Amino acid sequence: MSEAKLEQQFLNALDDKLWKAADKLRSNLDAANYKHVVLGLIFLKYVSDAFEERREELHDLFTTEADGNIYHMPRANYGSDDDYEKAIEAELELLDYYQEKNVFWVPVVSRWGFLRESATLPSGSVLWSDALGNEVKLRSVSWLIDQALDEIEAANAKLKGILNRIGQYQLENDKLIGLINSFSDTSFRNPELNGQKLPLHSKDILGHVYEYFLGQFALAEGKQGGQYYTPKSIVTLVVEMLEPYKGRVYDPAMGSGGFFVSSEKFIDTHSADKHYNAAEQKRHISVYGQESNPTTWKLAAMNMAIRGIDFNFGKKNADTFLEDQHPDLRADFVMANPPFNMKDWWHASLESDVRWKHGTPPQGNANFAWMQHMLHHLLPTGSMGLLLANGSMSSNTNTEGDIRRALVDADVVECMVALPGQLFTNTQIPACIWFLTKSKAGGNGKRERRGQILFIDARNLGFMKDRVLRDFTATDIAKIVDTFHTWQKPGKAYLNQAGFCYAASHEDIAKNDFVLTPGRYVGAPEQEQDTEPFADKMKRLTETVQVQFAESHRLEGQIQKNLRALGYWS
User: Fold this and answer.
1) Which CATH number fits domain 20-189: 3.20.20.70, 3.40.50.720, 1.20.1250.20, 1.20.1260.30?
2) Does residue 341 surpass a pLDDT of 60?
3) Residue 279 above 60 pLDDT?
4) N or C: where does the chain have the smaller number of CB atoms within 10 Å of the terminal CB?
């Protein structure tokens, strides 16, 4: 079995095991609450593992003599072996060693080993003494976890205010101990499957688990849960089309931060293609986000912390239109999946806002407010991808048709992608993706595209992953991405494909009253030519029908015979 398949098999088994353990909480909590307990423990496990990994690395550096090793602590400088070990232990507790590697400092009472051992002690057991010498005693396991989260926040300014406490949910001790044991019994470091070691790091595994759980919680919560989760394949599609190799990435409706995670994965996947070191390249990516929901804002911050991604999500959760947390930001890439057709967004203070360059959005629908907000924050050389309801491509309600025409006239619309239905957990509204840029003049690896818009109709792609949800395969994503890049980049031979893609001029679009629905432009797919003569076909089909009629008559007779034998047919 290939290494990639082994990794996937390991991760699938891990997902299943941990989800079954977490799902036991559902009898005590609804999905909207028990995610905080589970994700909080995943976070604690991650920061503790990362801390211990750095601690072991430092111990090796302190005790190993090697050329250029500035960390080495020579044994000869200390008296007894006991003095030497005490000196090393003291050195291992210095904060700077961890911060220099962007590892969160984890106080003793927040480390996973301490948490696991303390959780099983009788209530009232003395755990530690505070700064005044007072004994701190165990109250409950949820209290113990909250203390661990308190201490981590206090020790790391970047985490202040982002960790959800779980004591409010009043969970039974045994439920939480079971969950702690499930995480403790799982190999997040140096994993192996069937005796073969896997090249997965703690951050990779826990990041995967976090993302998997977000998706599962979104499914469990239904409509409300989908507000913080965009399907992985859709996020991947947008990121692959925009190719955010370096610069500032911004999401004004970030949810749990899926676009930022996929940007990091994109760099990891394509680093070899671009002849650079992925870890080095990530230093040239900075992420900026905003989210109005306080719970989701925290989920996103935890997601970034687990991934080791530096982030700026503003000082607090806030309304993007009324309290822009990044007013001066001009980003290289903007990506978002905001709420579709949001009605209650308008405020009188938004009248004549500088962001409405292409027209004031209708007060009853925020679709074009999101779009123009994103354009406002886009660099002159930047690119953006925005998911919106299909109505945005054709609606003439209030000012929407005028704004759409203004966008086409300004030549900022680059590509329109129509998506299949049933992709989202929170809505059945058909969706599309708008790709916009402020410059189609060429350069930076792109050909001149002024006066053109590429239309891609992807409604027939994908597969039903279950009875409710549809998804894209990697092949589907590659087909859309390759079509876009073939059209966008020089030296590639782009061809229109009936039923799938069409490069339209602004004249074509004007003839269609500036409606941007791909189906209007790509046409119907070409049908295979029927070479069978009509007379021969009719003869063949007539003979087939006669055979089927005869079989139907035979079966009808057999059924009547069986019913007579049972006394139900005269």
Assistant:
1) 1.20.1260.30
2) yes
3) no
4) C
